[in-house]
Amino acid sequence: MAKKKSKKKRKQQKKRVLCLVSVVLVAVVGAGGVLLYKKMTEKTREDIIKEYMGYIEKKEYEKMYALLDEVSKDKVKQEDFITRNQNIYEGIEAEKIQLDIPEEQDKDQPLSYRVTMDTLAGEITYDADTFFEKEKGQWHLVWDDSVIFPGLESKDKVSVSSVEAKRGSIYDRNDVLLAGQGEVESVGLVPGKMNIQAEEDIEDLAEILGTTSEFIEKQLDASWVQQDSFVPLKKMTQEQLDEAYVPKEGAESAGGSIQDKLLEYPGVLISKAESRVYPYGECTAHLLGYVQQINAEELEEMKGKGYNEQSVIGKSGLEKLYEDRLREKKGYRISILDEQGEEKQALAVKPAEDGENIKLNIDIRWQQKLYEAYQEDKSCSVVMNPKSGEVLALVSTPSYNSMDFVLGMSQETWDALNNDPNKPMYNRVRETWAPGSSFKPIVGAVGLTTGAFTEEEDLGASGLAWQKDESWGNYKVTTLHEYSGGAVLKNALIYSDNIYFAKAALKIGAETFTGELDKMGFNQEIPFDIGMTSSQYSNSEAIDSEVQLADSGYGQGQMLVNPLHLACMYSAFFNEGNMITPYLEYEEGKTASYWAEGVFTPEAANIIYEDLKEVVSNPNGTGYGASKAVGVTLAGKTGTAEIKATQEDENGTELGWFAVYNTGVADSDTILMLNMVEDVKGRGGSGYVVNKDVEIWNQMQ
After folding, report:
1. 617 noted as active-site residue
2. Which residues have C-beta within 8 Å of that of residue 682, sequence separation ≥ 6?
């Protein structure tokens, strides 16, 4: 019994020893774990500098300040620290900050590292040495201004200066300026010379300038304005200032110009100012477009490309198309300046870059003459050298003045442009139109090329109205002239016989016809710098009926053609059946290239080329009026396209076309001009266009 108790007692003692050992082990392990945990969570100097620099791009300046040691915080207040760092880093647009920290550095020495950052003046790289102190077991950064940039002292400034650059200019083929830097008139006020009670004057000036009294008063109240300051209100061209002053309704006028009226008011001053200018105004507006100050949406889209809120950007036309090449790039210099404003060190320098100058094939003489001839019409015109592909003119009328957008227009002017039924903002040369009879030479060339008929084949006289058979119901193709000599290709072109070309299209057949048009670029993108609407032969993917095919043969039905594309198709008559690639930029010695080769056989192309001479030289030809041109022999084809809702519609309108070229000249002097004018019904049809074109050719000789 005694042995059992003794054994039990020994077991209990053993348990107490084991428990005590366990407690001791737990205590020992726990203490080590805490030490190990502290070791694992303690930030190194490298961690602190990385964290500090990481806060710069995040603009978290308070967190940067929290990493400073207490002595540094005693020297610089948080507010001053934040202001200093924010002004410098955001002023230079610091981003993509990277650190390179060598390993195994002596903790008793400052931490060495290299900083690389992108700025608006380019990349800045510098080597730094920064001290750290341990406080409460954690490293803290010992800060002074040299942490920002080595050598920067508390009274120094980091300066960002800009160097202006110029936007590139646009020239015509003869180096005539079309768009570039120039001078305009700046209308403004000198406060000290104004009437003491100027409220009424300000109201009058606002009315004359197309602005508001509130706007003028805001400019006069700007903080920089002194009594002798010139306060600009509006930039205007001299032509605008010379316009007759028309007072608001009910007001009396003594006559005179807008400039005369403005100068009646004390304090008004008109001085010179730099501006983007377009010397040829309306005649180049659709081609060149205009520039304006960038908007918020564009600024976001262009982020990272060097634009800012004050940047000017191309909004339309070639100004927009060539924006990346025309735009200037400001130069910047980031420097450390001492207390006296002297430069101690240049941190980064980015040279200014002027925009690229661009030279076009455009000949401003053709551009201007076409605009002047058709400015009262709704029209579009293309002039090109069909041998080289050089585009010499692209004109759309009516037009607008690019300077109105550059200088700022009144709401009244903007409303007038948008509400004008003639659509002056509409660029007709980029659109597609029913070509009418101007398309007949293309159909003739397709028929000859495919062997559907020959030039001597008589397709039969059918009077002034014809239908294939009774399956066409009441529908008939009509034409304007009966003629002798047989319904052969040359006569059909001379008299512009709709019936002949309707029959020609049927002989070609829908599948072959559309296949040949596809080879010529129908339903395809036109290879040209300026985007053009693609030509089509149907609203669907095919020509669906005999009637539609017949109508297509004389440029009606659902046929819609872009004017530049049609000019390219005509170019095949000059190039043995090859269709030229049009191009806009001037290039000395450029070799002509073809958009499509072999669209017609050389024989077919030559036949059409020669026949179109007869359209002008023959007294019965629809283009005979062009034979009156002086000093030049012309050839070409007229076209009148009917635009109406139904066959019975008597209120429809007509488009007048004339594709005309000079003959017997050197390749470099060969000119193909193509014009389309809306609403020629009752004005002579295509004859209206022929007469206008003769005037233009006479002026260009």
Report:
1. no
2. none
Which residue is it, tokens 């009774």? 470
pLDDT band at 40, cuts 50/70/90? low
Q: Under 8 Å CB-to-CB from 566, ≥6 apart: which residues?
A: 435, 438, 439, 535, 659, 674
What integer is the mean pLDDT of 552-575? 98
Chain Cα centroid distance, residue 616: 40
Token pair for 605: 């192309």
- Beta-carbon contacts of 623 under 8 Å, excluding residues fewer than 6 positions away, are 615, 616, 634, 635, 636, 637, 638, 658, 660, 690
Find the mean pLDDT for residues 512-519.
Answer: 98
The pLDDT, as a whole number, for residue 303 is 84
Q: Which of 437, 462, 496, 538 is catalytic?
A: 437
What's phi and psi for 614, nearest 5 deg? -70, -30
Task: Kindly give the pairing relationship between strand 653-662 and strand 634-643.
Answer: antiparallel
Task: Kindly tell me the burial class for residue 509, based on how many C-beta atoms sit within 10 Å of its own C-beta (0-12, 13-18, 19 or more).
Answer: middle
Read off the pLDDT of residues 596-627 as tens digits, 9 standing for 90 and up. 999 999 999 999 999 999 999 999 999 999 99
Record the tokens describing residue 242, joined without a space.
């010379």
Contact in structure between 94 and 57 (CB atoms under 8 Å): yes
CA–CA gap between residue 578 and residue 387 (Å, rounded): 10
The pLDDT of residue 372 is 98
Whether 672 and 661 have beta carbons less than 8 Å apart is answered as yes
pLDDT of 425 reads: 96
3-class DSSP assignment, residue 155: coil
Strand partners, 159: 335
List CB contacts of 661: < 8 A, sequence separation 6 or more.
386, 570, 574, 612, 634, 635, 636, 670, 671, 672, 673
Question: Do 316 and 425 contact (CB within 8 A), yes or no?
Answer: no
pLDDT surpasses 90 at 215: yes
Cα distances from 625 to residues 441, 658, 692, in angstroms, run 19, 11, 10
Residue 304 confidence (pLDDT): 79
- What one-character DSSP code corresponds to residue 464? T
Q: Give 329: exposed, middle or buried? Use CB within 10 Å, 0-12, 13-18, 19+.
A: middle
